[in-house]
């Protein structure tokens, strides 16, 4: 049957030319989009070893001196620190709060701010790299709030590591592999390539890999301590809380704001707002253009699929009208309605498969010229991910593109094929 269908396509090569050209173009364009979503979904599937669900950013601020409720006696360093600790205690004592942490504003999970550092291993100075620095007050539990884990899924806590040393640093798993691939990282020293004597840190532990954003790959990450003081309270520290899972987000937000608006009015402090870290993550993706990029590609995919379905449906509807004699003759010779339907469907699939060959040759030029994106590929390291295996990725994305278009073609051909299959043989032969 397959040989017969291929011969049929060849005999009608002129009639198939235009739909073949359209399939070629749509296949190439759709492959480009499928490749993008393939890498995007692959990156999202990589574990981040943290959890943003049920976490909230609590924004507190200070009244300015010109505010009518400003208290000059509460503005000195000692008062600021004492009031901040009282504020943390009240948040911690709230009935639906599970854990509290204080972190720097550039360490916001899913946020747009970023603080990086370029470090190298003192043991092997050829091993160096740049990564994100996340800093927090070790008197609170940043790791518990966001449920950080080791690579094997074991929960970790700030208390698991020794933060008494001002040079203490904890590494993400990828950082440990990059700097110390052949040894246990604990106790090793990382230093700045430019000022190794002044800027160096002692590794106190290793936790799981993290990703800055869900659509990126794991990155080099360093965790360091920054304790609360009167200077950083004012401009670079934020409060994060984990709510109890049993409390719905909408209820927690409303109840917390109602209760704590009054409770957190301490000294010159007041509650400015509460926002979920999931919302922060989505807002950052939008501001970085990721949301619009996904929407545009999704719309283009739907456009191409609808376009090809309409084209194929119209073409096959016309073919059935001009091939009534052939269809009637086949049915008169013993072909069943299922055989007619199957023949027409296989014609569409074979035409797609034939046009896939030149489409792949065109796509290879895109790959050769480096025109395909490897989303999030700039963050990492020595680890080779599936999208980095160009040949395997090329084969997988072309197979996915073929499946998507095959489904669209089958859906488009089904109606005219079904109509042809229901045609009476005598009617078809009479038409000729």
Describe the structure.
The chain is an alpha+beta fold and 432 residues long. The chain is built from 13 helices and 10 strands. The strands form 2 sheets. A 6-stranded mixed β-barrel has the order 3-4-8-5-7-6. It has a 4-stranded antiparallel beta sheet with strand order 2-9-1-10. Strand 6 and strand 7 (200-207) form a beta hairpin. Helix 2 packs across helix 12 and helix 11 (337-368) runs antiparallel to helix 12 (390-421). The chain starts with a helix and ends with a helix.
In short:
This protein is α+β, with helices and mostly antiparallel strands and 432 residues long.
Topology summary:
Layout: H1 2-11, H2 13-45, E1 55-62, H3 77-92, E2 97-104, E3 116-121, E4 128-136, H4 142-145, E5 168-172, H5 173-179, E6 189-191, E7 200-207, E8 221-225, H6 230-235, E9 237-243, H7 249-263, E10 269-276, H8 277-287, H9 290-322, H10 324-332, H11 337-368, H12 390-421, H13 425-431
Parallel strand pairs: 4-8, 5-7
Antiparallel strand pairs: 1-9, 1-10, 2-9, 3-4, 3-6, 5-8, 6-7
